[in-house]
Structure formats: C-alpha cells, structure tokens
Amino acid sequence: MVHHTISTSSTRAPSASSRITVMTRVFRVLCAAAIVGMLASCAVKPPATPPPATLPAEPAPPTGDVADSAPLGPALQRARSRWVPVRWSELPGFEQDQMHEAWNAWVKNCERPGATFARLCSEVRRLSLATPVEQRNWMRARLQPYRVEPLGAPSDGLLTSYFEPYYEASRVPRAGFGAPLYRPPPSLGQRKPWYTRQEMDVLPEARAQLAGQEIGYLADPVDALILQIQGSGRVRMTEADGSQRLVRLAFAATNDQPYRSPGKWLMDQGLLRGDVTWPGIRNTLAANPGRVNDFLWSNPRMVFFKEEPLSALDAQFGPRGAQGVPLTPGRSIAVDPQSIPYGTPVWMSSQGPVANLQRLVMAQDTGSAIVGAVRADYFAGWGSEAGEFAGRMKQPLRLWALWPKQ
C-alpha cells in the first residue's frame, strides 16, 4: 500500500494557538464591519433638494383696496364741510411718511382726546414703539379716510403756516428795549370791544389801565406785533438783576377788536408789491420809517399774554393749542373746528414753491383767520428759520380726515 504525505518543506500546518489568533482577528473585523453598517444605517442623510419651509412666510402688509375692500359708507356732514369716504390708496404719499414723527403728536393728542378718540388711546400709546408698517396697518384696520370738501361749489384749499417767535426781552424798560408786552388788564371784561391798538398808545385812560400790566419789553415794536399775531412765543428774559431765563408767553386774551392784515395795508398804500412776507415787510418799513406807527395801528387787534416757565422738556414742544395740548413742529395744524374737530388725525397734501408736504398731522389748534372746509395753518416750530418758512407759506391744500370705523 502506498501512503501519500504532505511535504513539510513547502507547507506547515498551523498550531492551535495560531488558529485562535486568526479567528479572533476575523471576529473583530466582522464586528467592526457590522458596527459601521449599523452607524451608516442610523445616519441622517441630507436630501437631494431642500425641504419646503415648515413656517408660512410673513404676509405682505395690505395696501390700497386690499386693505379696505369693504363697501364705503355714506358721506358725513359737518357744519362747514362734507366728508366723502375714500380708499386708503387715494392718500398721496401714505406709504412713504415717517410715521414715528407723527406718533409723538398723536400721543400728545391723548392727553385730551375727546370722546371719539379716547377709546383708541391705549392702542396709540402701545404703538409708539411699533414699526411704520405696523402703525400703517393699524390705521387701515381702525380708521376710515374721508376727503374733506366744502359744502358749496368746489374750491381750492389753502395752507398757510405759523410759528412760535423767539426773541430777547427785558423785564424792565431800558435802552434798546421799549416795546411792551402786556398781561390782560383788570378792566378788559368791562368794555367790549376794548381799546384799539392805536388807542392804547395815545389815550391816557387806556394807558392808565395798562400801567403795571407789562410782562416785559422787546427791542422792536414790529417783533411785538409778530408775537401778537402768532398768539404766543418764547423769550429769553433778562431780569432787573441781569440774570436770564427762558419763558413762554402764552395766549391769554384779546381786546375783541377785528384782525386786519398789516401786510395788506402796506399793499393798499402802494408801499409793498409782490413780496408779502415778513422779510419783505421789514425791508419796506426800513425804507419808510415814518410809516411804522401807521403800519402797527392798521391792525386794531391786540393780544395779551400770560407767562409760563419753560422746562427742558416743554422746550421740545410748542405752545398749547386750542385743543389744550402742546403743539408738535411739523405735525400739528390749526383748523376750522366747524369743519374738522380737535384731536382728529388728518392726512395733508400740499405742493408748491415753498414745500411739498404729504404727511399725517393732528388738528390741535385754530385761529381767527382759519375759516373754511379745506383750510389749515401748519405749525412750523420756533425761531427765525421757522419764521422764514411760515412767512412764505401759501399753497394749495387737500385734506383727508381719518375717523374711527364704527
């Protein structure tokens, strides 16, 4: 019998310990592969395309007819105007106005809001820190715009401007300061109308009743006239001891005489042509110094003042208007209250040689010359720059009253 054997010179059979080592390595490799596979199966793989957003995009703010698509109600009748309901899209420049500027005036409105707007004041105050988009959306939701029209035949509206004069003053008469400003005299209510401006200057009995009522003195009687026409002003008062303080001279009363335009008097006299502004008037008077008293006396109306302290906070606002709240420069207007009630937010549009104004304003004041449906006097602020602006402002005007929805 032939036995076949494996030659040990070419292959050697492994020992028991070697076999165990090999098996252990194989086992480890298999375990590692299994673990990698498990991890791979648990991994979150990015999708080929991004998933759709889970939150809806913020809707765009409503504009135009989208914001107010409900049927428009009837027109409203006022004593001197007719209000026609319109869409918000009719208001020129509504999307561009800097609403936060107007909101300061609106918050002031809420110091004496009247019954119609009182219920909105908590929301108005809360929206003081809101964005212009949020403020505009709130207005669309809560208010209805009405175009203000005259009761009779259509006519162009008129925008003028007024300001708070700012002058140097002296508590006592002294060299260079001789134009007096008065408190209401005690006898003011005993005679209606009271003495005219000219009579106060020349009649001994009138002068006697004004004695002791001087608040202070300005350097120029024309400045005193301007302050009386504007109805209030701020002055840097030099006291008798030389100290100075800032005070406001607020409207207190009149002599019940009619107002007549001194500028028109100059035109009627043939002394002034074209430039009917305070700079033009001053130039004319400088060329005709002998006519200054006649110029002053051409307006028989006199305004009397009361003195008010002016704190740093108060100095940021104008005087109190007829509504009883401080006026905000560029955002308060004087109106005819028979056309637009005090406290009403108003959209104003006026374009002309002096300024292009499309903005939210508040009806917070009135004046003896402010009469009619589409008539407003724009509060420009205080000082010489505001005075220059106010002296030249005379432009066409359109108004929209913004009234709470029912």
TrEMBL record:
Annotated Pro residues bias: 49-62
Q: Which reaction does it catalyse?
A: Exolytic cleavage of the (1->4)-beta-glycosidic linkage between N-acetylmuramic acid (MurNAc) and N-acetylglucosamine (GlcNAc) residues in peptidoglycan, from either the reducing or the non-reducing ends of the peptidoglycan chains, with concomitant formation of a 1,6-anhydrobond in the MurNAc residue
Occurrences of domain Lytic transglycosylase MltA (ranges): 166-306
Name the source's superkingdom: Bacteria
Q: Report the leader peptide range.
A: none
Annotated region described as Disordered, given as residue ranges = 49-72
Keywords of the record, alphabetical order, are: Cell wall biogenesis/degradation, Lyase
First-level EC class: lyase
Q: SMART domains of this UniProt entry?
A: MltA (SM00925)
Listed EC numbers: 4.2.2.n1
PANTHER family in the record: MEMBRANE-BOUND LYTIC MUREIN TRANSGLYCOSYLASE A
Please state what the protein is called: peptidoglycan lytic exotransglycosylase
Which organism is the protein's source? Ottowia flava
Lineage, broadest ranks: Bacteria, Pseudomonadati, Pseudomonadota, Betaproteobacteria, Burkholderiales
